[in-house]
Design a protein that fits this description.
- With 89 residues, this protein is an all-alpha fold.
- The chain has four helices and no strands.
- The two termini are 24 Å apart.
Length: 89
């Protein structure tokens, strides 16, 4: 489940730190979160798609590592990102 170009650009514009930012932690976490939600929806209807389930678990692990990285660097940026994306509760 990949993201459309318009969706990617919308996420980049929403979460970028400066004008040419496309790869900051905030942008990466936002894109991963969107892909995770799409894949979760897919897996609810296709319970036996085990390869997609494995990919979902890898994406969740990657997002967790990125979130722990940003939490180590700046608690304020972490809190703002979690609040903006609606994660953790």
């Amino acid at each position: 489940m990949s993201l459309e170009t318009e969706e990617k650009q919308r996420l980049i514009n929403t979460h970028q730190i400066h004008g040419s930012d496309t790869g900051s932690v905030e942008v990466q976490v936002a894109m991963l979160s969107e892909r995770i939600s799409k894949l979760s929806t897919h897996l609810q209807g296709n319970k036996h798609d085990f390869s997609s389930r494995q990919g979902l678990l890898k994406m969740i692990g990657q997002r967790k590592r990125l979130l722990s990285y940003i939490r180590e660097k700046s608690e304020k940026r972490y809190q703002a990102l979690v609040e903006k994306l609606g994660l953790r509760g």
